[in-house]
Amino acid sequence: ALGLELTEVKVFQTGEDPSIPLHVLSRLSINSDLWHSSSDLEFTMQCLVPDFQQPADCMDFSSRLQEQQVCLERVTSSDLGLSGTIQVRNVAFEKQVSVRYTFNQWRSLHEVCARWHSSIPEKSGQGQVDVFTFFLPVPPFLLQLCSVVQFAARYRVNGWEYWDNNRGKNYTLTCRTHPLKMPRECEESWIHFI
User: Fold this and answer.
1) Enclosing domain of residue 147
2) Of 49, 57, 140, 149, which has the maximum CB count within 10 A?
3) Domain with 123 in it: what CATH number?
4) What percentage of the chain exceeds 90 in pLDDT?
């Protein structure tokens, strides 16, 4: 389905149906629908969309980082989950950064550790900032219209704990439909687009 080389050869006997993974069948179904459509290829897909402005694009990003010691920088959504970056003030060498998240309004929660990515100078020029990256896996069955993912960043250093929870509102992403259009002449390269 992805154009890769075979890793195993399987010989099927007459009357024996091959087992086809669901993700391959769904792609074949999409291709079939597109084949019968007119002019432009148009479909919608569901994805998680932030209900907040990316913090790094806000004018008060530096002051929030100074005040909270930790601040989400940016988050992006893919079909596998959410990935993002967090900045923390370099108070001490030993530190722990994590992201706590929920799919059901905090009735249950999950937590993932963020990984150190790089160190950069603070915009004020008075110290260093460490950048951490994180990935939150989002199972496809949770991607239904209007489903919500909420999260907050936690920073532990020198026996203290600091949070960035979007000023008490949590960072929230909502599943919405996103229309995609593709010119008809691109249909041969459709599998590469997926």
Assistant:
1) 45-178
2) 149
3) 2.60.40.2440
4) 52
Q: What is the 3-state secondary structure (H, E, C) of 37-79?
A: CCCCEEEEEEEEEECCCCHHHCCCHHHHHHHHCEEEEEEEECC
Measured in degrees and rounded to the nearest 5, phi and psi for residue 136 equal -110, 110
| Residue 52: both structure tokens together | 């907040």
Please name which of 30, 37, 38, 74 lies closest in space to residue 173, comparing C-alpha atoms.
74
Q: What is the pLDDT of residues 125-173, one digit of tens each?
A: 678 899 999 999 988 777 777 789 999 999 999 999 999 999 999 999 9
The model carries a pTM of: 0.70
Residue 88 near residue 132 (C-beta atoms within 8 A): yes
Task: Report the alpha-carbon distance of residue 85 to residue 75 in Å, rounded.
Answer: 7
CA dist., res. 87 & res. 174, Å (int): 24
